[in-house]
Structures are given as C-alpha cells and as structure tokens.
Task: structure prediction
Amino acid sequence: MKREDIVDITSTRPGTPGGRFMRQFWLAVHRSEDLAKGHAKPIRILSENYTLYRGESGRAQVLDYRCPHRGAQLHLGWVEGDALRCLYHGWKFDCSGQCVEMPAEDANFARKVAAKSYPTREHMGLVFAYFGDGEAPAWPPYPAPSQEGVIHCWNVETVPCNWLQCYENTADEVHVAFVHRPGGSHAKLAADLPVITAEETDWGMLRHGTRSDGKVRDTLHYMPNATRVIVPPLAGFDGVGGWQEIYFNFTPIDDESHLWLITSHVKVTGAEAERFLAKKAGFLEKVRSAPKVMDLVQDVWAGRRRLVDIEHPELAMVQDIAVQAGQGRIADRANERLGRSDAAIIVWRKILARELAAIAEGRPTKKWRPPPREVAPTLGF
Ligand code: FES
Ligand SMILES: [Fe+2]
Result:
C-alpha cells in the first residue's frame, strides 16, 4: 500500500496529520490592502474561524473568533488604538489577547482573562499568521527578490476545491500549453513542452522544466503551500512590467475551499513603475465592470458557455479555476493515471505523505530550513 493511501494528504482540519503539519508554518491569510486601519473582519483558515483586524497604528493582528466572555464575534467590535473592544459588553483586548478593560466588572478580573492571539506579520503585500504551538518559525516565510521593483498583489479569489489540487497545478507546467491556449498569454511557454524533473530540498522542492534546446526553467516550491515562478507579462498590461516573479499562496479555508493569495514582484522602477501602476489602474477598472470570475466558471461547468469563447481581463484565472476546481471539491487521486510529466506532483505527494505519516505515528518530522535568498526561479528560454 502506498503511503498516500495511509494518510489523507488533503485534509488540514485541526487534529488531522495535515492540519498539524500546516500549522507548523507561517500562512498567508489576507491581502494587506484589503484590511484598512480600524477594521476588523472574520477569517476562516484550516477549518477554524478567527478575527483579523488592523489597529490604528497600522498593525495587523489575528485573535480568536469569539470573545471569551460570552462568545460574541469579536469582529463586530471597535478597534481602539491597537486593541479591539467587544461590542457585546465592552471588554477590551490588546494585541496579545490580554483583556485590559471590563467596564461592568471588578477591576482585577480583566487581568485574569485573555483571548488567544496568533503571531501576525506582513510581507510582500500579504498578511501572514502562525497558528501552531510555541515559537513561530523564521521570518519571512520566503525571501523577496533582491532587485528593486513594485509589489503587485492580485485580486484574491476564493476557489471551491481543496488547496492541494491548485498547489499541484503549479508543479504542472504542461497544463499551460493547453489550459491557457485560448487568449495566448502563455504562448512562449507552450512552444515546446518541457521534460519535468524535481528534487526535494531543505526548504521544499526545486522543479526543473528542460526544453529541447537544453535550457532549464526552474520553479521553487516552498513548504507548505507557496510556489515562486516567473510568468509572462500579465494579460491586459500590454507587456508593461515584463516577465515577473509570482508567489502563489494556496491557503485552505477548509478542506473543500481555499484562497488564492498571489503576490508578485515586478522589476520596474521610476517612470517605468509609474507606467505599470497606470496600467494596473486601467486593468482594475476593467475587472470591476467584467463578470465575476466564479460566475463564468459556473457557466462553463454548466455547459452554458465554452471556455474557449470567454474574454475576460482575468482570463487565466477563469481557465485555471474551471479546470482545477472542476476536478471536484477534493480530487479523486485513487483513480488517476500519472505520467512522466507528473514527476513533480509525485515528488511533492511523497514528501507530504512521508511527513504526515510521521506525524500520525508520533515520529519526528523533517526540520525545514528558511528558503535561501540565492535560489531564485529562472525563465528558462
Ligand atoms: S461577549 Fe464580549 S464582552 Fe461580553
Ligand atoms: Fe494555469
């Protein structure tokens, strides 16, 4: 029996091997620009609810979902300074979760009560949190490119399937030639199908796509849920910004849905950066007046429209989500026929299965190292 059959490599619910594994890492949970100062909102990550808020100093913080008094939702409350006051009876909690005020209680009761607080930090336009026990791992979870540039965070999508199938897709370069053929944005990557190989590293997996001329395209897969790759100029940007480095973060909401938190580093400065930002403003305007990505995906799934006929500023997202979430809420891995082009997916599953089996059996897991700055993805042609 294969290891993958012994442990469920898709579940991240609390208490499952996958859930315990995922909780050992910093996870991207939100786009920074979508969290204004003084705002609090509910988030659901790894099948658990939390409160995310931004204090008046600009600091983002994750706390428990419910107030320890009588369980009101904390995001209903008020942000005061960097603290959050529960709307129900006014108990006030600081960033560490410590209760610092209880208007209707004895003065010494507050110091005995705390909400749970989770280490929270920001990197490359995304909010990250750590949900595990003990000290959070090294920061940042992965390095930004060393050259100057603009950080561009994509619109966040909630994708109705398990996180692992979209993660696996980022290890599947062959899909690009087919899924993204309509629209032509990825034509350069599709000209010559690469031979895929992959190797486990101290920090995750390094994948190579070797083309017939011998040139190699490297992509980095950071434990546990991020992929760093160089991608073509964005559709709708008319080539402005050129090929950019993208970091895909696939964060489970629960076992049947997850977030696409995608941030990128665009190698432009000065006047070129201004041109990029102007293009971006025009692009976002087009997205605002276009149909919602998931509405189009539903149309395609129902057979009301053909994927090849769709025009949309975020066409690549429609294509990817239609195919990957279309595999089912949790793809059936027992009945696949993997080929040699699936080599990287196989390596990744073996790593996950090995680590999760160790957790399930109470054995030590691998000590993952912070990803090194000097290992970067390559274009490969
Ligand atoms: S439930 Fe929050 S203060 Fe009472
Ligand atoms: Fe894709």
About this structure: The chain is about 20% helix and 25% strand. Residues 175-176, 179-180, 320 surround fe (ii) ion (ligand 2) (CB under 6 Å). The radius of gyration is 22 Å.
